[in-house]
UniProtKB/TrEMBL annotation:
<keyword id="KW-0732">Signal</keyword>
<keyword id="KW-0720">Serine protease</keyword>
<comment type="similarity">
    <text>Belongs to the peptidase S1 family. CLIP subfamily.</text>
</comment>
<keyword id="KW-1015">Disulfide bond</keyword>
<feature type="signal peptide">
    <location>
        <begin position="1"/>
        <end position="22"/>
    </location>
</feature>
<protein>
    <recommendedName>
        <fullName>Peptidase S1 domain-containing protein</fullName>
    </recommendedName>
</protein>
<dbReference type="GO" id="GO:0006508">
    <property type="term" value="P:proteolysis"/>
</dbReference>
<dbReference type="InterPro" id="IPR001254">
    <property type="entry name" value="Trypsin_dom"/>
</dbReference>
<dbReference type="Pfam" id="PF00089">
    <property type="entry name" value="Trypsin"/>
</dbReference>
<dbReference type="InterPro" id="IPR018114">
    <property type="entry name" value="TRYPSIN_HIS"/>
</dbReference>
<dbReference type="GO" id="GO:0004252">
    <property type="term" value="F:serine-type endopeptidase activity"/>
</dbReference>
<keyword id="KW-0645">Protease</keyword>
<dbReference type="InterPro" id="IPR033116">
    <property type="entry name" value="TRYPSIN_SER"/>
</dbReference>
<feature type="domain" description="Peptidase S1">
    <location>
        <begin position="38"/>
        <end position="267"/>
    </location>
</feature>
<keyword id="KW-0378">Hydrolase</keyword>
């Protein structure tokens, strides 16, 4: 019981410290089923669309959608660092291959949580974590799952690129319940300098080595979408939902962990072992 109380405290403190810094991580509040998500999105219905998206839930808090994550390979998903509490991997459950959460059955439990060593809850630098799965995923016609494509070619994630962000998160700023259906909305990649300038006005630092920004008037990711995919062109994972000030406010783009800058880290963490390479303690 005591460890569980500590767990609640740790999670609460992580959220408070990011708010103190005015960066609002887009982790799910205690989401309730019933309402749609993503700001100004549409439900994902195509059979082949969104097949790399999973819902991450923490059994200890009940069956609540907490964060999104992305299938990397049959034993690995990528989520946000701020979604990955340290310890208690046995409490984390993943639901993959089903867009309607109420119809999803448990896909796998988690055996190991590997949060980036350079993750900071204050700056939200290196906001990435890998979860290792207990049950290997199968990628065939029956499972509705497949891995994302990693951005080996950084041009795919270039300024102005039209991309889609996916999630079961809230559909309005301050909203409080999870979308029953996976939602998506279109956003465009914003240049590092433009994004830095937008947040500099609020005294907040955007680190271009770790972060990539995307925006579109009236459209955005929001709370509950954390860790989920920013997909460009054909299934390329350019970002994972990280933070913003509010959601879809015209002056503030959504900020994502920049997957292209973590490719070496993801590869080194391939398999069950994860060694942190020298120089990877801060942004990769
Ligand atoms: C998982 O992927 C690995 C590497 O691609 C492969 O060797 C293995 O057979 C796969 N496991 C299952 C259960 O599909």
């Amino acid at each position: 019981m005591l460890v569980k109380i500590c767990k609640a405290l740790i999670l609460t403190l992580a959220v408070i410290s990011s708010i103190a810094n005015a960066k609002e991580s887009r982790i799910g509040p205690r989401l309730q089923p019933g309402v749609p998500r993503i700001i100004d999105g549409v439900a994902v219905t195509g059979q082949w669309d969104g097949r790399w998206a999973c819902s991450m839930q923490d059994k200890w808090y009940g069956d609540y959608h907490m964060c999104g994550c992305n299938i990397i390979d049959n034993r690995t998903v990528l989520t946000a660092g701020h979604c990955a509490p340290q310890g208690w991997p046995e409490d984390i459950e993943l639901y993959c291959g089903e867009k309607i959460l109420s119809e999803a059955t448990l896909t796998s439990k988690v055996t190991n949580i590997i949060r980036h060593k350079g993750y900071s809850s204050e700056t939200l630098n290196n906001d990435v974590a890998l979860l290792k799965l207990q049950t290997a995923l199968k990628f065939d016609e029956n499972t509705n799952m497949k891995p994302v494509v990693l951005p080996e070619n950084p041009d795919v994630c270039g300024d102005g690129e039209l991309c889609y962000v996916y999630g079961w998160g809230v559909t309005s700023e301050g909203g409080f319940s999870a979308a029953p259906n996976l939602m998506k909305t279109d956003v465009k990649i914003v240049s590092d300098s433009e994004c830095q300038a937008s947040y500099a006005a609020a005294g907040i630092i955007v680190n271009p080595e770790c972060m990539i920004c995307a925006a579109n008037p009236g459209k955005d990711s929001c709370q509950g979408d954390s860790g989920g995919p920013l997909i460009c062109r054909t299934n390329v994972l350019c970002g994972t939902v990280s933070w913003g000030i509010g959601c879809a406010r015209p002056e503030y783009p959504g900020v994502y962990a920049e997957v292209a800058n973590f490719l070496d880290w993801i590869k080194i963490c391939d398999g069950d072992k994860c060694m942190v390479p020298t120089g990877c303690e801060t942004c990769c």
